[in-house]
Amino acid sequence: MTYSRIIIFLYLLVGAVPYFYAADKVDSQMLYLNILNLTNVFLLIKKHKKFFLNELIKSTSNIPVLFMGSFFLWSIVTIIPANNKVESLVSLSEILTYLICLIFLIFHFNSLEKHKREKLIFILFLVVTSVELISVYYPYFKDILEFGESSFQSIRYRGLSGNINVMSYSLVLKLPFLIYYLFTSNNLKYYIYTLITMSTYAIFSILETRSAILSLILITTLISISFYFLQKRRSIMNILKKILLPIVVGLIISQIQSNYTSKSSLQDRMGTLLQIEEDQSITQRIRYISAAFDSFKQNPIFGIGVGNWELESVKYDRIYMEDYTVPYHAHNDYLEIIAESGLPAGIFYFGTLFYLIYLIIKRILFSKKFNNKHLFYVAIFCSISVYLLDSMFNFPQARVVSQMNLIFILCISTLIFDLKFSVNPRLLKNLIIFCLILMPFSTYSSIRVYNSSVDQTILLRQFNNSDFSIPSLDYIDRIQSTYPNVTPTSMPISSLKAIWFMTNEQYEKAIKLYKEGTNKSPHLYFSETFMGYSYEKIGKKDSSMYYSKLAFDKAPNDLIHFGNYMFSLASTNDSVSIKETYKRVSKESRLPGHDEIYVTVMASLKDPSSKFSLEGIDINFQSGNDRLKKGYY
Questions:
Q1: Cis peptide before 484 (omega within 30 of 0)
Q2: Is the peptide bond before 471 cis (omega within 30 degrees of 0)?
Q3: How far, in Å, CA of 324 to CA of 621, rounded?
């Protein structure tokens, strides 16, 4: 069916959906997927009338849907321990969206004849890879033409994915299938060669994600060995020519470029993996992973609540935070999923992937004769391995592009392997009805989240620029802060709005909004520090001291917390406490702002006529960086 092919293409090209002014690309992409899901429902009802449920049942009686459906149902249970249940509902709507996408994609693939389906899969890999490479290479060559050379890991090279790490793994995940088609297809061989070479160069020299480079090396080695033995050691030259040659060409071009430009070589980039103490990103990730494991040990069955790790992670990392750049994720999906929703969730989420790996190994080991089908098994095995490696170093669960890549692989697997299971049709029918009933909620959720994300773009930009002159207070007051109730950087939206009222001396209104935000992100103490400042401005010194001290005690290295607490201490003339407060800021975290605030406070004690004020002191407001929670990392 022609419309099935179109729908499949529309699902897999979700990365091409732009931001549409949202703070996080995930928000516009989730809205897009929900619109596609609704479109599918209308098309199915129109075509199959009252029998459309029976058609969908055929697409649900398989292991991938069983595991993902179980993951969704278990995640519903884990709302109970969640501190921020609104964030749990947002995450649940996303999981439901992916589940429905999986069901519909399996349905559309099954609706095609076998030879048309195989041809479509081949075209999909070529088209999607080509589009991704164009989106990476265009800004790359543009920089070279304009500035004479490219930039190191520039966010401009993120392509359709929103982030260089996502794009790196998206390309690596498709490479096994490109290599497979190079061996088995007589069509477009030179074009496939070109795609492999360009993908290799992009991963090595443009995107430069270290874990993706390691993954590329590992799967290339695995494919070479597997194809050599599966083809009965027919010709090692064939392996060298079809697998290693395009990889090596990409590597050589990468090395030549590093010799003639200021860019670091591949060896230099990979060498930083051994410099753990000097490499901040590695030490941070070790810290994040340890925090997730500690949280899991405390709540092994139900976790801390689906969608709540980005809030909970602050509790473990706040003593290291110098601003409001929070961990967001554990940088390990295995640990983050079980920390959020317990061990059962981890089993449900990764169960299908490990089952497929087991099935492929079993099929290959116990086969007496090998053919192209077994080479395709290896391609699936390697792609799944890439996703599992990505899950070990990053958080593909939170990335729409990564999730749709995974769903595509799962759809292919259901076509190749016998993944059906026997289950009561009535139970499957009830599951589909349950999902369809929840679809309007999921769509409504994505609309609310997207609209809020557009507003957050303005809020976060102005906050990071310390400019609260725009937009107007009327506009700020109209921004909804209930669903969602935190930004991608874990800041309560109501508390972020409060800053505009505080800077316009409407302190009572600001305090009310800060109080609304205290339990939305309970470990950030963003609301408390500014509440303390507001109380000081209206003369409620006890309340000011309580909240500013609380925020400083919980995150002592944060410059804003330090400044607001010093502002409260200045009115007490307690020089001992002021000195002790300054000493509590770690030497590694001390900024010129800390010194300036301390010296100014001490000077105001010696000269009573000079009253201490934070105005005029350059305090850098920072909520995250250019890499927001999902869309950028």
A1: yes
A2: yes
A3: 8
Distance, CA of 206 to CA of 531 (rounded, Å): 45
Give the span between the Cα atoms of 535 and 392, in whole angstroms.
45
Give the whole-angstrom CA distance, residue 239 versus residue 591: 56
Angle at 168 between CA 16 and CA 310, to 5 degrees: 80
Please answer whether residues 617 and 593 qualify as being in contact, where contact means their C-beta atoms are separated by less than 8 angstroms: yes
Amino acid letter for position 169 = Y
Give residue for tokens 């773009």.
457
Q: How far is CA 99 from CA 106, 201, 328, in A?
A: 11, 34, 24
The distance from CA 476 to its chain's CA centroid, rounded to whole angstroms, is: 28
Cα dist from 362 to 367, 368, 411, whole Å? 8, 12, 20
CB 247 within 8 A of CB 263: no
Separation CA 315–CA 554 (nearest Å): 9
Whole-model pTM above 0.85? yes
Phi and psi at 339, nearest 5°, equal -70, -40
Q: Which of 281-285, 332-336, 430-434 has the lowest mean pLDDT?
A: 281-285
Q: How many helices (H) and strands (E) does the chain have?
A: 26, 0
Strand, coil or helix: 374: helix
Evaluate whether 202 touches 172 at the Cβ level (below 8 Å).
no
Beta bridge partner(s), residue 486: 492
Residue 319: pLDDT band by 50, 70, 90 thresholds? Answer: confident
Pair of tokens at residue 347: 């089993």
Q: Which H or E element spans position 349?
A: helix 333-365
Q: Which CA distances in Å does 582 have to 547, 604, 622?
A: 18, 16, 21
185-192 — which CB contacts under 8 Å span 24+ positions?
185/122, 188/126, 191/126, 192/126
Residues 132 and 158: beta-carbon distance below 8 Å: no
Bridge partners (DSSP) of residue 420 are: 62
Cα–Cα distance measured from residue 453 to residue 546, given in angstroms and rounded to the nearest whole number: 33
Angle of CA points 189, 195, 200, to nearest 5°: 130
Predicted confidence (pLDDT) at residue 346 exceeds the cutoff of 60: yes
**Alpha carbon distance 596, 612 (integer Å):** 12
Around 224, how many Cα atoms within 13 Å sit in the side-chain half-sphere? 18
Q: How far apart are CA 596 and CA 3, in angstroms?
A: 65
Q: What is the dihedral of CA 596, 602, 608, 613, to 10 degrees?
A: 30
Cα–Cα distance for residue pair 335/394, rounded to 1 Å: 11
Distance CA 247, CA 193 (A): 9
Residue-by-residue DSSP string for 221-282: HHHHHHHHHHTTT--HHHHIIIIIHHHHHHHHHHHHHHHHSSSPPHHHHHHGGG-TTT-HHH
Cα 289 to Cα 308, 377, 402: the distances in Å are: 16, 32, 21
How many Å apart are CA 139 and CA 118, to the nearest integer? 33
Whose structure tokens read 């592009």?
A: 401
Q: CA 33, CA 51: separation in Å to the nearest integer?
A: 24
Instruction: Express each pLDDT in 245-282 by its tens digit.
Output: 777 777 777 777 666 665 555 555 555 554 544 556 77
| Tokens standing for residue 147 | 């500035």
